[in-house]
Design a protein that fits this description.
alpha/beta, 7-stranded mixed β-sheet, 3-stranded mixed β-sheet, binds guanosine-5'-triphosphate, binds magnesium ion
Length: 352
């Protein structure tokens, strides 16, 4: 399984519109709030030009790109944690995602548009924090009875839970906290929402081509796009898309940029393998050692790992064939502690 992103935001923020733009799935998009009740889920493979050129260089007939799961849930409102709107039950669908795409509508002039963006963002972040506090409270209920028996593990767990509660009550998201490895074990079991990486998307229609679509505020990243325009592109033939974009003064869709930014924020990298007829892309966190990456391909490869032949994707594209790269001595051998780099093509040698 690849990595995953969940869309959050107020009702009518344009979450399902952006879901459609990313996945090309036909979903309910409507001007009334709570048009999404059951979550929409889809697995997509963004176009990977490196994989295409790798397959061409190696004569692979089959290409297996990396996948991303996208989940679109109902809108959250103020008081969702107390059952307002559709409540927050559906947030459970976001527990396992790696990143939250927080959609903020700025196109809705009658609802304040740009003027109350901070307030809109705050409503969602507060509801996510309240959902986390509820998760922590339930966990405390299970942990506290264990204290009586002098369980040291339970004491440590409780301290960690209390520390997180305090942090959340001060209005801070858990993603800003640095946990010790021991604390991490507890935190990861809880799949807390404010602990997830977040990308803000400003959904608006003004100034399509005005400056950089990305802005940064502290460690927060904001990407501006027009959900409606991006979703309309999906209904056009590929040949018509660039003309349509040009009419708005844009060169390309921002959906690729959106996914790329999510990928970067999660600090992921892609490596490639070629076996038989198949060229395949794999996604792992940056800093992954090659022996672990090999284990993702096959557990046997990790257990019996000998070494790995590494070829950079650029060299393959440049020379145009695997044989040429090897003949020119452009491939190298690395041991198990080698940290995989983005774009590496790996040939793992192992004992089976
Ligand atoms: N003008 C304009 N309208 C948009 C844009 N993006 C979405 N909309 C409209 O806003 C309304 C709500 O869009 P949805 O995508 O259904 O919003 P949602 O966030 O999924 O809403 P819920 O599922 O109800 O929470 C629809 O009428 C969309 O056509 C945009 O960029 N510009
Ligand atoms: Mg929706």
């Amino acid at each position: 399984m690849g990595w995953s992103c969940g869309l959050v935001g107020l009702p009518n923020a344009g979450k399902s519109t952006i879901f459609k733009a990313i996945t090309a799935h036909d979903v309910t998009i409507a001007s009334y709030p709570f048009s999404t009740v059951d979550p929409n889920k889809a697995i997509v493979s963004p176009e990977d030009l490196r994989l295409i050129s790798l397959a061409a260089a190696c004569g692979s007939k089959k290409m297996t790109p990396a996948t991303i799961e996208i989940i679109d849930v109902a809108g959250l409102v103020k008081g969702a944690s107390r059952g307002e709107g559709l409540g927050n039950q559906f947030l459970g669908h976001l527990r396992n995602v790696d990143l939250l795409i927080h959609v903020v509508a700025l196109f809705d002039r009658e609802q304040g548009g740009f003027d109350n963006q901070a307030e809109k963002i705050e409503i969602i972040n507060l509801e996510l924090a309240l959902a986390d506090l509820e998760t922590i409270r339930r966990r405390r209920e299970k942990t506290e009875p264990k204290l009586k028996s002098g369980d040291q593990g339970a004491r440590f767990e409780l301290e960690t839970l209390v520390m997180m509660e305090r942090y959340l009550n001060e209005g801070m998201p858990l993603r800003n906290l640095t946990f010790t490895p021991e604390e991490k074990i507890i935190v990861e079991q809880l799949s807390l929402l404010t602990g997830k990486t977040m990308l803000y998307v400003y959904n608006h229609e003004d100034d399509f081509n005005d400056g950089d679509p990305l802005t940064f505020f502290g460690d927060q990243t904001y990407l501006a796009l027009c959900g409606r325009l991006e979703a309309e592109l999906i209904d056009l033939q590929p040949g018509e898309r660039s003309q349509y974009l040009e009419a708005f003064g844009m060169k390309e869709s921002r959906i690729t940029m959106l996914l790329q930014r999510c990928f970067d924020l999660l600090q992921l990298l892609t490596f490639y393998t070629v076996k038989g007829d198949e060229a395949k892309a794999w996604v792992v966190p940056r800093g992954t050692k090659v022996v672990k990456a090999a284990g993702k391909i096959h557990t046997e490869m990790e257990k019996g790992f000998i070494n790995v032949e590494v070829i950079s994707w650029e060299q393959l594209a440049f020379t145009g064939s695997l044989t040429a790269v090897r003949d020119r001595g452009l491939s190298r051998t690395e041991g198990k502690d080698y940290q995989v780099q983005d774009g590496d093509v790996l040939f793992v040698r192992f004992r089976s």
